[in-house]
Automatic annotation (TrEMBL):
Compartments, record wording: Cytoplasm; Nucleus
Listed name of the protein: Ubiquitin-protein ligase E3A
Main location class: cytoplasm
Domain HECT: 520-848
A GO biological process held by the record: regulation of circadian rhythm
Keywords (A to Z) from UniProt: Biological rhythms, Cytoplasm, Ligase, Metal-binding, Nucleus, Phosphoprotein, Proteasome, Transferase, Ubl conjugation pathway, Zinc, Zinc-finger
Catalysis performed (reactions): S-ubiquitinyl-[E2 ubiquitin-conjugating enzyme]-L-cysteine + [acceptor protein]-L-lysine = [E2 ubiquitin-conjugating enzyme]-L-cysteine + N(6)-ubiquitinyl-[acceptor protein]-L-lysine
Residue span of region Disordered: 165-199
Segment forming the signal sequence: none
UniProt-listed PROSITE patterns: HECT (PS50237)
GO molecular function, one term: ubiquitin protein ligase activity
A Pfam family per the record: HECT
Length: 848
């Protein structure tokens, strides 16, 4: 059998090569067969001294399979060949003639207990000659339904005849004068480095699967009609056994090569097709989720090493499974998508592709900000006494896979596949976030929450989860306040009340918030209630919004000097030479945290590096591109300069920048930096140190206070776990994408107006005719910010109210209520002229 197997293999390899290469391959075929015959039958010489000949008295006999593998190894090293005894030649010739009669062969390959590329191709060739693929289908079904067989299949340490033959051709092409060994020249060399037929390098990981060979095999198999059905049935039979093995027998701990099963199966490029999606793939994903974290991490690293095409295929396969399952079922408050095992398993497997995309992209795991930790207290909190500690446990939760890999989503500078492609909108449409939040916070051990895989949720859905978290904390603080009041006999104060004077708003807010943060920080978790001294009115959200607007307008006033403003980028940055104390910066951080906590959009303009630093990362050179673009360009030119850096640039490790009064300040990036020139060799170090100084060291005092204020409000929030830095910016500042069609559909009317009123029709025609900048001015005029809330302008709920009949007065607005007061102008032209004047010159009047 082994001899026939070897001849079939060589036959398959040689049959499709060009005629020019046929002679070299034929010679190699002949040599491999001779080595095999020498190992199994010997040369027939009883006095043979060749230790790799079966006729040698010292030779240890080999079974046929071992001999076939050994023959390849001997061929590669050009081992000694004996001249066959004449009687042996005749015996061998008769044997070969019998065994190579393919037309009469009835071989079913029942002794094949695992697959290799050569095995599959041999069986394929046999089936092609027979005109019947039943043998192949039976072998595939038997191997793919058996875990032990798959573990041994397609191993990278398995001999591969096609590679050996390729090496002969490659060597002969490189060395045309090289002689091919014959029986007369047993010492001539015939080996060279083996190259795969496909340009896929094996990953530098301890997973012994020959991926190149496996992919070539799948390419051949999946073009045949009955193969998919056989593989589907085999997987359905295999996966229950995998689940049991992984859950109860610790098979991976005993044999780490158990992972080979998942590597082999997931190379099937048809897994996303309907025949797999119904049963086979969901069951296989459920089994894969049973793998220990260490095995899943190995799989992630393996996929990362394969590159974009492979990771995208994995991502699309699992996304297809999730979408297919979601659209095929009906979910409601009783039948939750969280209970659908197929969706849950697909989501958990999609997580592997997500982390592989991060690992294969640009990652920074080194530059981390130190967290500002609250001092631990040995005293039990009231939450713990009431048994609510699970709802309010401190510190961000840690994904075990993230910990095993040593990388977080915030470490990602640029993933291989954009984060947005991992969001599944079909799932977002059916997930019940109130129930999901409960699973996330309370029943995480027994119930699956999609918030444990936040990459699959869009910002709107995650914001709903954050909203529930914030509201539950607010209600809890009210309940605790009432309980304290009953015990202590005091008047309950269920809100975070701020009473401020308009002309002293910063001082009043600073004193009050600083006092609360020191005496009872938990009060900051209460719902904000603002009152302006001497003014009547109940804060239903509008007064708080106005408070935020006024505080930020004063804090970001360039005359105060807390922040510097870049006219080109229109962004603010911390002033490293500010004379303001840290409490002022803490107040800014508190305001940002309170805005998120109270679901309020702020008109804040920070570069993205601020949000990355808030989420725990230090600023790096790439962050300068939006915070300090001119400096970024200069440093980029320094890195790319092809001349003599030291002589032409004349830079040293001493830098200078301007202080608050425009005077230069010198700073040594290294000790005695003035004496250390920047050269070709150390320019990268200079760029990194310069960036670190500008983004981190020079503003360390200011940013630390700012971050402290932010964390006072958000330290127990899932914000850091659920959101990436760009999403945090979206929560605070809103989106720059403006859909005024959506705003028109959700706008409400008051004072006698309706959507059928002629003035309203003229109004919307005018708005839609505006350019992008004019639309932003209108939004700023009406709402206090030129950005849309999370979810788009359709979530804004703007009100247009009638403000009298035709007049020369300009439109006005109540920004705290998103209300536009619009007179009923006599013509569309007058409406446009009055509206443009109002939004263009809005500062100083009309903003109520």
């Amino acid at each position: 059998m082994a001899l026939m197997f070897t001849r079939w293999t060589v036959y398959w390899v040689c049959r499709s090569v060009p005629e020019s290469s046929r002679m070299n391959r034929a010679t190699a075929k002949h040599l491999i067969e001779r080595y095999f015959r020498q190992l199994t039958e010997g040369c027939g010489n009883g006095d043979c001294t060749n230790e790799i000949c079966a006729s040698c008295p010292n030779f240890r006999s080999l079974d046929n399979n071992t001999a076939a593998a050994k023959a390849l190894d001997l061929f590669k090293v050009n081992a000694k060949l004996c001249n066959p005894n004449p009687s042996k030649k005749e015996q061998y010739s008769d044997l070969v003639n019998k065994m190579t009669d393919v037309g009469n062969a009835k071989e079913n390959f029942s002794d094949v207990n695992h697959l290799t590329e050569t095995t599959v191709c041999t069986i394929l060739s046999f089936c092609e000659e027979e005109g019947d693929y039943s043998t192949l289908i039976h072998v595939l079904g038997r191997i793919f339904s058996n875990a032990e067989a798959l573990i041994k299949s397609f191993r990278s340490d398995e001999p591969n005849i096609s590679k050996a033959l390729d090496s002969v051709e490659a060597t002969d092409n490189d060395n045309p004068e090289k002689k091919t060994p014959t029986s007369e020249e047993p010492g001539a060399s015939s080996s060279a480095a083996a190259f795969p037929d496909e340009d896929v390098s094996d990953p530098p990981l301890e997973v012994l699967v020959d991926i190149s060979a496996l992919r070539r095999v799948y390419d051949k198999l999946l073009s045949l009609d009955r193969v998919d059905a056989a593989l589907v049935n085999a997987l359905i039979y295999l996966t229950p056994n995998l689940e049991l093995d992984l859950e109860y027998l610790d098979v991976y701990g005993t044999n780490p090569e158990y992972l080979n099963i998942f590597v082999v199966v997931l190379e099937n490029t048809n897994l996303h097709s309907p025949e797999y999606l119904e049963v086979a793939l969901p069951q296989f994903c459920k089994a894969m989720c049973k793998l220990p974290v260490a095995a899943l991490a190995r799989l992630v690293k393996l996929w990362a090493s394969y590159g974009l095409t492979h990771i995208r295929r994995m991502m699309e396969t699992f996304q297809q499974l999730i979408t297919f399952t979601v659209v095929s079922n009906d979910y409601d408050g009783e039948n939750l998508v969280n209970d659908d095992e197929s969706v849950v398993a697909g989501t958990q497997c999609l997580k592997l592709a997500y982390y592989a995309s991060i690992l294969a992209g640009d990652v920074d795991v080194e530059h981390n900000e130190e967290d500002i930790e609250d001092p631990e207290s040995d005293e039990l909190t009231l939450h713990e006494l009431l048994g609510e500690e699970r709802l309010y446990k401190k510190g961000p939760r840690v994904d075990p896979l993230q910990k095993e890999l040593g990388v977080r989503s915030v470490d990602c500078i640029k993933p291989l596949i954009p984060h947005e492609e991992f969001v599944n909108e079909s799932l977002n449409d059916v997930v019940e976030m109130d129930k999901d939040f409960t699973f996330f916070k309370v029943n995480a051990e027994t119930k699956f929450s999609f918030q444990s895989c936040p990459f699959i949720l869009n910002v709107i859905t995650k914001n709903q989860g954050l909203y529930y978290d914030n509201r539950i904390r607010m209600y809890s603080e009210r309940r605790l306040t009432a309980l304290y009041s009953m015990v202590q006999g005091q008047q309950p104060n269920p809100y975070l009340k701020l009473k401020v004077r308009r002309d002293h708003i910063i001082d009043d807010a600073l004193v009050r918030l600083e006092m609360i943060s020191m005496e009872n920080p938990s009060d900051l978790k209460k719902q904000l209630f603002v009152e302006f001294e001497g003014e009547q009115g109940v804060d239903e959200g509008g007064v708080s919004k106005e408070f935020f607007q006024l505080v930020l307008e004063e804090i970001f006033n360039p005359d105060i000097g807390m922040f510097s403003y870049d006219d080109d980028t229109k962004l603010f940055w911390f002033n490293s030479s500010s004379l303001e104390n840290e409490a002022q910066y803490t107040l800014v951080g508190l305001v940002l945290g309170l805005a998120i906590y109270n679901n309020c959009i702020l008109d804040v303009h920070f570069p993205m590096v601020v949000y990355r630093k808030l989420m725990g990362k230090k600023g790096i050179y790439l962050d300068l591109s939006d915070s300090h673009p001119a400096l970024f360009q200069s440093l980029k030119e320094l890195q790319e300069y092809g001349g003599d850096v030291e002589k032409d640039m004349m830079l040293t490790f001493q830098i200078s920048h301007m202080d608050l009064f425009g005077s230069p300040i010198l700073y040594d990036l290294k000790e005695d930096g003035e004496e250390i020139p920047v050269t070709q060799e150390n320019r990268q170090e200079f760029v990194e140190m310069y960036s670190d100084y500008i983004l981190n060291k020079s503003v360390e005092r200011q940013f630390r206070a700012f971050k402290k204020g932010f964390q006072i409000v958000t330290n127990e929030s899932p914000l850091k776990y659920l959101f990436r830095p760009e999403e945090v910016e979206l929560l605070i500042c809103g989106s720059r994408k403006l859909d005024f069609e959506a705003l028109e559909k959700t706008t409400e009317y008051d004072g006698g107006y309706s959507k059928e009123s002629q003035i309203i029709k003229d109004f919307w025609e005018t708005i839609h005719s505006f350019g992008e900048e004019q639309k932003r001015l209108f939004l700023q005029f009406t709402t206090g910010t030129d950005r849309a809330p999370v979810g788009g302008l359709g979530k804004l709920k703007m009100i247009i109210a009638k403000n009298g009949s035709d007049t020369d007065r300009l439109p006005t607005s109540h920004t705290c209520f998103n209300a536009l007061l619009l007179p009923e102008y006599c013509s569309k032209e007058k409406l446009k002229e009055r509206l443009l004047k109002a939004i263009t010159y809005a500062k100083g009047f009309g903003m109520l």
